[in-house]
Amino acid sequence: MSLTQLADPTLLPTLLEAAMLICFGVAWPLANLRMLRSGRAEGKGMAFTAIILCGYVAGALAKLALASHGDALPPVFWLYALNTVSVGGNLLLQWRLGRRPVAPVAPVAPVVLAAVAG
After folding, report:
1. Are 79 and 93 in contact (CB under 8 A)?
2. Which of 9, 25, 41, 99 is most buried by its number of CB atoms within 10 A?
3. 77-93: per-residue pLDDT in tens?
4. Rounded to whole angstroms, how far apart are CA atoms 72 and 64?
5. 82 C-beta neighbours (distance < 10 Å), count
6. pTM of the prediction?
7. pLDDT tens string 2-24
8. 72 in helix, strand or coil?
9. In a domain, 28, yes or no
10. What's the total number of domains in the chain?
């Protein structure tokens, strides 16, 4: 990397955007793995996840729009694409696991404590 590239005013914002996408990009597969292991979709609603998915799609489309005007496709586009796939997988898991019938919990017999007279 040359000094000219380091002086680019867009470098720091791009690096910070990439850091954000990497952090979220690690979180979503972990959430997917947790759902697969537990077999339950709990903790967040499908609407919440769908809104986040729309945000990632919008971010990716913004990078594509910049590239369509002659700019190079920024590398963070691929982070948006990867996160979109992870969040889409999370949404599918929520839909699939949320539709599974919940096993009824067996009733617990009341415990009666007898006082011992002595």
Report:
1. no
2. 41
3. 999 999 999 999 999 99
4. 9
5. 17
6. 0.73
7. 656 667 788 888 899 999 999 99
8. coil
9. yes
10. 1
